[in-house]
Amino acid sequence: MALSPLPMPGKRFVIGVPYVWLFVFFLLPFLILLYISFVDMGSDISPFKPIWDPVSGVLSLKYENYLSIFRTAEGAPLFRTLYIEAYLRSIWYALLTAIFCLVIGYPFAYFIARSPASVRPALLLMVMLPFWTSFLLRVYAWKGLLADNGVINRLWMAIGLTSEPVQMLYTNVSMLVGMTYVYLPFMVLPLYATLVKMDFRLLEAAYDLGTTPFKAFWLITVPLSKAGIVAGFMLVFIPCVGEFVIPSLLGGPENMMIGRVVWDEMFTANDWPQATALAVVMIALIIVPLAIYYNYSGDKK
Amino acid sequence: MKQLLEKHFGKFWLVLVFVFLYMPLLFMIVFSFNSTRQDARFTGFSFRWYEALTKDDRIVEGFITSLKVASITGVLSAVLATFAAFVLVRYRRFPGRTAFSGMVNAPLVMPEVIIGLSLLLLAVGSQNLFGWPERGLLTIILGHTLLGMAYGMVVIQSRLLQMDRSIEEAAMDLGARPHQVFFLITLPNIFQAILAAFLLSFTLSFDDVVISEFLSGPGVSTLPQVIFGYARRGINPTIYAAATLLIVTVTLLIVAYAVWVARATRRREREIQAATRIEMAALAINP
Questions:
Q1: Which CATH architecture is the domain A66-300 placed in?
Q2: Prediction pTM value
Q3: What is the pLDDT, as a whole number, of residue B162?
């Protein structure tokens, strides 16, 4: 039986309020961003030139800001610009983080889902709790843990693993530890959500029929939790590409990611058109995996 | 044998990952009571970093600023998220629905750097045109609300989708006016989700560094901005003291919330059971 649509009070008002809000504070800023990415850098007073010269009446769309992303210095290998390297580095570290989160998070989510129903809410709460305390402070703590004379180095030296402190802070090791740590719950929760719905009697049936646990895992558990794997991967990968705080605190100077490059172009070089062009390309990089994801999840329906 | 192995490995893995998740929190709690600046050796118990914390004007001011920003962001996000969730769940057809749903969800996947940058450009543009707004509290709140609204919407939307609409129909049949239905039936039903949306956006705002860094003006710094500034310079146990206070507060709040939700759920179940029993009894008397 189809419910008749209820007459709601002030439909126009209910739609209008969030619509106008989003138009002014989401769409409009984005259009300004797009606009500035197509104009020339300005003088000290105004950071960018207008696209339309009111004196001569000439409309000039500049692709310069986009071209300079790819333009290399004379004699340098093709496409190896600072910008391209920052993009590739961001994607690479985001990918590595997502893989680490999956490797650590999958068994973790699996065993939470298989634990008795009475303890599951408490275990989930324990996963969520660090997530609700300050992200910044948790990242900061790793600085003390991973420092040359930090807790971990001292522990390793005490048990004789190394004789000299190993430099971990301000390298890609500390950065990846920090990113994996922060984004692990984003992987665990969607994985748990699919695994907890799985009928584990399927595994018992497979064992009874003589399948090895390893094979049963690959043939039954993994395919049934595919949606959770993909969702978790996206939830980790996408924010990691634009991550700003963790590389600033834990990464070294050679680990500069694209979010930081945008910031520097904006506030250090004061080159607004270049910063906005870099940001537009960054959005494009994020939309591609998202589109693939939506296509994938659309197919399943 | 196989299952025994799985069971032990499972327990081992759970413990290992929980240690990983809680190690930084424990580390900060322990070393906030350290008597020296030493980072890896506990030299003695003291409250000196807590004392330093209360005397640090920048941290105290930042805390007050963050509290203001997060409270307003929380309320604004919860209200707007309720509107947005209503639009998406209840109005299946209206012009521009696809664009609307895209715009509500986009901040969930948009890097904060881009949200901050584009809102900064809007603020600067508006300031050049109208001389308003100055960068500061207001612009930070607007930036945080964009994010909070998106997250809050997801929470309220799922509650609205689960809600049994026949009780609204019943109220209408009994002569309730549309606004009465909303305030007496719908709102109490989704109130828990609205509260969750408030808490989520409050937390997001209280924790945000990137958007605030883009949108704050001279003389206005949120607590995370102050901490971020200290953190880039090196180790400072005062921050561990701040972290410990935060961890204790959040833990208490979350445990209280979890207990409250569990109680509310149990009460509702009991009421449903009682109602069913009465119905059965009524049927038995008058079939």
A1: Orthogonal Bundle (1.10)
A2: 0.85
A3: 86
